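sorry for the late reply, my laptop died twice this morning and i had to redo everyting from scratch. anyway the thing you sent over, i finally got around to it. pasting the sequence first so we're on the same page, its 339 residues, then the predicted structure underneath. double check i copied it right bc i was rushing
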Amino acid sequence: MSDFSLTLIRWFRENGRDLPWRHTRDPYAIWLSEIILQQTQVKQGWDYWERFMRRWPKVEDLAAASEDEVLREWQGLGYYSRARNLHYAARQIVGLGHFPDTLEEIKALKGVGDYTAAAIGSIAFGLPAAVVDGNVYRVLARHFGIDTPINTTEGKKTFVALAQSLLPSTSDSSTYNQAIMDFGAIQCTPALPNCVKCPLIETCEAFRSASVNQLPVKLKTIKVRERHLTYIYIRWQGKVAIHRRGVGDIWQGLWEPLVQETKKEVDIKGKVTVLKRAVKHVLTHQVLLADFLLLEPEVQPQLPADYQWVPEESLDDYAVPRLVEHLFEAVRINDEKSY
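ok and here's the structure:
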């Protein structure tokens, strides 16, 4: 075992995070935690993991649930394709008859890539597979002074090979993987890393060359798109008009009130209340600016074909995007002011 790996493992045994999914070897519980923690911080994902485990303690329970139930339980975590993939993969596992225990089988699950497969495989089954995520890129780039951009083909190959070469050949692969992830999350953080108390300070190339804040290197290739939406909460005789978003855009499969992406006015007669203007909602590749309107028509309006009326008190039964949650809250505040 290299000095680098040994130092990380020693650090982890003293400083590692005490997380509930680290107290089990149940591959279902470990897989669930890894899917939830994709694009989600531990402090937020923890509650969701416990909620899912209480409601669906076994993979068979999750597989038997409906997609709507899973999306509703996932609400607030964002990146809803993860929830759909989770549900699909649960049914894959049940169909297989056991939880896959090889990297190839684990990677065949919907929504599981190289990193997630390595994490599940090493932690649940002791497979010798090194994890490579944002934390790992940062720790390795800084310690070894690597300035190859991490989002290039060359960079990915370089870091994957290095990570695998540092993996202990003993049964410590699981401990090492969790150690380097925690080290990046707690010690070698993106901003203000605790270099002074770092156990690797004497061999850290970035600290020696004063380039900690310059590593890792990532090419800027993503263009952010700005979209303007108008959400219209149509209330008629205790019911609200909603529809399920289709494929090919954000929030696939989630529900929302009438929405427009043009300046065209809705041809429905009734009382219109402007709740909020230009509510900003930031996604990975998009910035949404939304206006919230409350429309209370005089007579029942004709809705587009894919919309339906649902009782207003049952809206909590439908999985909606975070932005729509803000709309619902604005409606509630307006109602309270009106009384």
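The chain has a mean pLDDT of 92.
thats about all i looked at so far, will dig more tmrw
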